[in-house]
Amino acid sequence: MRFLSIILIACLPGLTFAQQTDSLKRDSSMQALKVSIRNSRGLNPPKIQSFIAPAVLMSYGLVSLGNNAIRTLDFSTQKELHEDHPNFSTKADNYLQFAPGVAFYALNLAGVKSKHGLVDGTALYVLSEAIMGVSTYSVKHIVGRERPNGGDKFSFPSGHTANAFAAAEFLNQEYRDVSSWIGYAGYAAATATGVLRMYNNAHWLSDVVAGAGFGIASTKLAYLIYPHLKTMVMGKQSMKYSLVPMYQQKAAGLSFNGTF
């Protein structure tokens, strides 16, 4: 549990920074949030070299599919965790995996601008999740590794962890120019998700490591191909929209207006 405490503490600086930035940039009159969506040339896709780290993480997991030292580490880690905490059980990982994605929208609506507007940002996030979902689902069914708890044979890679790291990398891409602490907080939440999956006896260590790689790579791939997809769909058009907080008939909401 000490390791979990360290992970959760690591999230605090990023959350503190977000609150401070929120206070500085909040518009007291709740004016309309107006964003000009950049064209595809301004999306700054990642370089190929940035895929090295997630490739290493995925490779680590793939190597564990054999009978080797990495697989032995899976067994020893699982045994140690459940000897120390045999009755550990929580559903926090089911919600924590979405924290970085929620943070993107919360910060935007609070007035802390991301690299891309809400429309491009949402498109990138959805594309990242789609790539992650298809890739992890396919590998799970191809590999057929049994979970530590024997629940099913879809253990490798960890889908929760992949989802969390895809969202964390997305948050990092969008806010690293504002503050690196926001990205750190997202990655801390993703790491905590992976750790909780192991404590819940739902995944092996290598499942979690590989899941992190799949998640990060999915988001980086989305940023790489999205400019081309956008050009195919919209050409060189740009779009402007306004997102206005509203209150009508005792219900709060947002009014969206967009023009090409």
From TrEMBL:
Residues 122-223 form the Phosphatidic acid phosphatase type 2/haloperoxidase domain. SMART domains: acidPPc (SM00014). Coiled coil: none annotated. It holds the Pfam family PAP2. Gene3D superfamilies: Phosphatidic acid phosphatase type 2/haloperoxidase. It comes from the Bacteria. InterPro entries: PAP2/HPO, PAP2/HPO_sf. This is Membrane-associated phospholipid phosphatase. It comes from Pedobacter cryoconitis.
